[in-house]
Amino acid sequence: MTIIILLIITGLLLLILEFFVVPGITIAGIGGLGMIVGGIFMAYGLDTATGHITLALTIFFTLIILFYALRTKTWQKLMLSSSINSNVDTIVENSINIGDTGKTITRLNPIGKARINGQDVEARCPGQFLDPKTEIEVTEVYKTYIIVKPVK
Q1: Rounded distance, CA 66 to CA 57, Å?
Q2: Cα 79–Cα 80–Cα 81 angle in degrees, nearest 5
Q3: For residue 139, what pLDDT is reported?
């Protein structure tokens, strides 16, 4: 009788794993279903009354487990509940133009921060690494970053 109970409990755990962790038809789902069916089949092998009781209890506990598993608050306790409240810094239109000069704030290797016209922006210097406080000139302006080159 113990092996029947262990088969059914393990099968239920594998089915829960299948439904909520690795959805799809995987070994966990097939194995869980096989264990539950095998446990019920073994219970019917003992006698018919034991088989009926085992089948009824298995269906009952499966419904209870599904009820608690599908409740929203059950999974809210396990879910990551952080939210992203940040946004991408954009360059104000016409505040930085091609030919403007400024200085790097951080090292550009090839991406870093630069201060142009009093505004801190993401700057890119393709093919070069620039140290902090290097004089730079703007060669291209995009919505979220600029392309610069060192001033000779």
Answers
A1: 14
A2: 105
A3: 94
